[in-house]
Amino acid sequence: MRRVILAMLLSVWIQGALWGQSVRVGTSDQIPAESPVNLYLCPPCVPWDSTTAAHLMRRAGFSASPEELDQLVEIGFEATLNELLNYEEVDDSEMEEGLAEKNYPLTKVNKNNGKILPDTGQMQRWWLFRMVNSKRQLLEKMTYFWHDHFATSVKTVKQVAPDGHSYMMAQNDLLRKYALGNFKEMVEAVTVDPAMLVWLDNRSNVKKRPNENWARELVELFTMGVGNYTDEDVMEAARAFSGWGLNNKTGKFTFYRNKHDFGMKIFLDVTGPLDGGDVIDIIFEQDVTAEFIARKLFKFFVYTEPSREVIVELADVFRKSGYEMRPLMRAIFEHPEFYSDRAYRSLIKSPTELLVGMLRELGMSDPQFLPRYMIDTGQELFAPPDVSGWTSGVGWVNTTTALARYNFFNYLTSLRGEYSLDFVEWFDNRKPKNFPGYQLSGFDIVALFLDAIVKGDISVDTRYELEQYMFTADNGKTVAWDIADKVMFDKKARGVLYLISIIPTYQLN
Fold this sequence. Notes:
Largest sheet: 2 strands, antiparallel
Radius of gyration: 25 Å
């Protein structure tokens, strides 16, 4: 009962934080305190310090450790943004080698019939390992965004190609390939992607029995949005994509001429013997396409209710670039609204952002235990609930999912053994380098965790309560702090990390 009550309170607190809590309190704590590079991003004239860098990395990646943030502050904003966008120039071999060493078995054999199937849990660990350890953070964050945008589920798409790769893993590779590339080229590639051909039934779309599933979602969810087409446009587009099928023997896209409708069609007022490629060309001639994608990206990366003026501005950048993603993403991350108070800590973290983010902030590298907690918190990678993708905002938090977050934080801070955080080593690495023999106080423990987890974005009263916890025994009496007391250190370090993790501010991106 106590946990349920805490979950209810957490749900209310998080939503309350969104509607009225000001969480940008001041600069973060570091021990020892060091002067950040005092560069300003103007407008909106915010300092390029560890707090601003943390905001950027929570949005453009899956957060970062204090050490990583120090490095980003040192190299400056422009260099940081260039590394995020020009990921090919960033050496990610360490992550790739670690992934190869893990050798996750991404398929399994059905014991009843011997059929090879995707191993969803191992696929999730494979991707989570990339998210946690990749130095190409924006690449993985964009791959995650596109997975939700072109939502496809392994619960329906269970096929494995003759080369041994499941259709869903091949789609994940495709999304990563185009994540920061050309959006039109991505749409063209997704159109003939085997997983999508199965998911939205275009493999069954033939001249005599047109299937509208792919055509409808192409215009409604993937490119233009509701209200910018008619049902007649959808029917005509379905005819244009007829015969765009899948060869089950090869596991590859195949165009079946005898199943294609070569007749005249009218799509968005364009008349001709249109095929699927023509439909895509026409879609990308519409102004609403650039606006639809710019708006969705802004809502994901900045805040949920952008002005018309901002979207028109960003869409213009996107359109003029020929639908290249990097100019658009640069415009978003350089935009004053991205660093505004309205944007700061304004989005509720998805389970992926929350769980992966905590591991990255603490410097933990192995996500082995994450998949089972992600399901409870409301998100299962490779298995979005439907073609519209996952929920967002307050939809992530209810009594059930808040309790699951509570249970994850409890598990992580209680974990011991192979995949756990070594608290002694963690703090030893953060002692002041210029004070040999320095013994961390209870205040230091709180400050270091606050810096790593919430960058000091808490009220003075909350900080005080956390500090008091460090000096309070189970019986409520004051106790002297002694870091040499291994039992006390272990209990209090784990306890205060748990308390910080359930602060409503930490649930916000």
